[in-house]
Amino acid sequence: MVQTMGDQGFVHPTAEIESGAVIGQRTAVWRHTHIRSSARIGSDCVIGAHVYVDVEVVIGDRVKVENQAAIFGPASLGDGCFVGPGACLSNDRHPRAVTPEGALKRSSDWEALGVSMGEGASVGAMATLIAGTRIGDWAVVGAGAVVVGDVAPYVLVVGVPARPIGHVCRCGLRLDDRCRCSCGRTYEAVAGEITPTSS
């Protein structure tokens, strides 16, 4: 049995939605997912099973977060983003369980830095995005990559640490050496970044 939310959205009864979380219309939240207070999820999203959405996370509309992903606050995901299974968007560049004096760290002992994803950006399965990184519009992070720096729009990065190996179209396919996609879209390099010339 699922609990209906908004206009035809639903939350599985095993999901935990804390008080103060906001979920948009037609969004589906699957089993054993935990959405913390102050998290905001837009409309028409799919949040898979066993997903963790932390406090102060903002997720846009039409976003898909696959099973077992972990998104730590204050991450921000633009409209149309994709987060693959088991991916982690971290928020601590200097992780320690304890202070230098040996006391258990509290939230006041460190500064959370969220990952930012632009419109249409995708993160592959089991990828890790280090705290504070920005993934540009329509960029793609390959499966298993570890992203330690910003990724420009339409760039494809892979590896550990992640490095750019090409450019991608809005449809997700790689561009050829003349910035064309087999789907018919074309792009051009402007000030070192790829921008679309056709839609």
Written description of the protein model:
With 199 residues, this protein is mainly β. It has 2 domains: 168 residues, Hexapeptide repeat proteins (UDP N-Acetylglucosamine Acyltransferase, domain 1), CATH 2.160.10.10; 26 residues, no CATH class. The protein is 0% helix and 31% strand. The protein has no helices and 25 strands. The strands form 4 sheets. It has a 10-stranded mixed β-sheet, with no helix packed on it. Strands 3-6-9-12-15-18-21 form a 7-stranded parallel β-sheet, with no helix packed on it. β22 and β23 form a beta hairpin. The protein starts with a strand and ends with a strand. 40% of the residues are buried.
List keywords for this structure.
199 residues; mainly beta; UDP N-Acetylglucosamine Acyltransferase, domain 1; 10-stranded mixed sheet; 7-stranded parallel sheet; 31% strand
Q: What is the helix content?
A: under 10%
Main sheet properties: 10 strands, mixed
Give the SSE string.
EEEEEEEEEEEEEEEEEEEEEEEEE
Please state the average pLDDT score: 94
At CATH level 2, the architecture of the largest domain is: 3 Solenoid
Unreliable stretches (pLDDT < 50, length at least 5) are: none
**Regarding CATH, which class of the largest domain?**
Mainly Beta
- SSE-based structural type: mainly beta
Strand content: 25-35%
What is the fold-level CATH name, i.e. the topology of the largest domain? UDP N-Acetylglucosamine Acyltransferase, domain 1
- Number of strand elements: 25
* SS field, number of helical segments: 0
